[in-house]
């Protein structure tokens, strides 16, 4: 094998190596999802960052994290990855304010090396510290849970909790959040300000697409055709008849 052949082999190897490198100007971003509803706490929850991805030209790094509370139960849903959206600084706010069911979000799009590196709920902790919510209880109680209907929202795990005076309507819906490899469908039940869809103003939160469907219990109540059964147990069982069928 002559010197010219070796030179050709080296050239092909070099070209192959170059082709696997990220394009100049392309960002490396963390890639992760979160969908946790068991033993979630504000100060101890951690988002593990185990993967990264080379984005397309002009794409930035996104991180969007949702913190859901209903009664004493909590859930976290989140997405990290590449996005075509314009950059914006961190925005943390309530999509649904307390008292009663609350949904807080923190989100940003950045354009520097692995900049979507949030690993905890600190922005939500700060938001809650600056938010006052009435704790005066009413005589109304509602079935309460957040999580998959086959896990945290099984009837045995659904609790009955008294509502705050300012949020004394029972709410029950199935929520579906999708973005990249995130595909989270879960039940949300608890006390709310009124019977309206909580997220009717949000088709998307960052890159997360949102679908909210009232379950059969809520639809029956609004149409005046509520089933003849009564009491919390009936409400729980009806609440588990989900609107989504994947």
TrEMBL record:
Domain UPAR/Ly6: 54-117, 141-213
Cellular location(s): Cell membrane
Pfam family, one: UPAR_LY6
Record InterPro entries: Fert-Immune_med_protein, LY6_UPA_recep-like, Snake_toxin-like_sf
UniProt keyword list: Cell membrane, Glycoprotein, Membrane, Signal, Transmembrane, Transmembrane helix
PANTHER family in the cross-refs: CD177 ANTIGEN, LY6_PLAUR DOMAIN-CONTAINING PROTEIN 4
Protein name per Swiss-Prot or TrEMBL: Ly6/PLAUR domain-containing protein 4
Organism classification: Eukaryota, Metazoa, Chordata, Craniata, Vertebrata
Gene name for this UniProt entry: LYPD4
């Amino acid at each position: 094998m002559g010197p010219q052949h070796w030179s050709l082999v080296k050239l092909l190897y070099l070209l192959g190596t170059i082709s696997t490198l990220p394009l100049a100007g392309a960002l490396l971003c963390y890639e992760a999802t979160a969908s946790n509803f068991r033993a979630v706490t504000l100060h101890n929850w951690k988002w593990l960052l185990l993967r990264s991805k080379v984005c397309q030209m002009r794409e930035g790094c996104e991180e969007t994290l949702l913190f859901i509370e209903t009664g004493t139960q909590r859930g976290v849903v989140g997405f990290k990855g590449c996005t075509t959206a314009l950059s914006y600084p961190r925005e943390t706010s309530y999509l649904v304010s307390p008292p009663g069911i609350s949904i807080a979000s923190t989100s940003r799009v950045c354009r520097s090396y692995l900049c979507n590196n949030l690993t905890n709920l600190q922005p939500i902790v700060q938001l809650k510290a600056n938010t006052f919510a009435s704790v005066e209880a009413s005589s109304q109680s509602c079935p309460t849970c957040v999580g998959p209907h086959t896990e945290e929202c099984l009837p045995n795990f659904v609790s009955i909790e008294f509502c705050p005076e300012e949020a004394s309507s029972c709410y029950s819906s199935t929520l579906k959040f999708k973005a990249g490899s995130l595909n989270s469908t879960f039940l949300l039940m608890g006390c709310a300000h009124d019977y309206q869809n909580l997220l009717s103003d949000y088709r998307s939160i960052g890159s997360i697409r949102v679908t909210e469907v009232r379950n059969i219990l809520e639809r029956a109540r609004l149409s005046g055709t509520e089933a003849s059964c009564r009491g919390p147990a009936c409400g729980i069982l009806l609440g588990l008849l989900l609107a989504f069928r994947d």
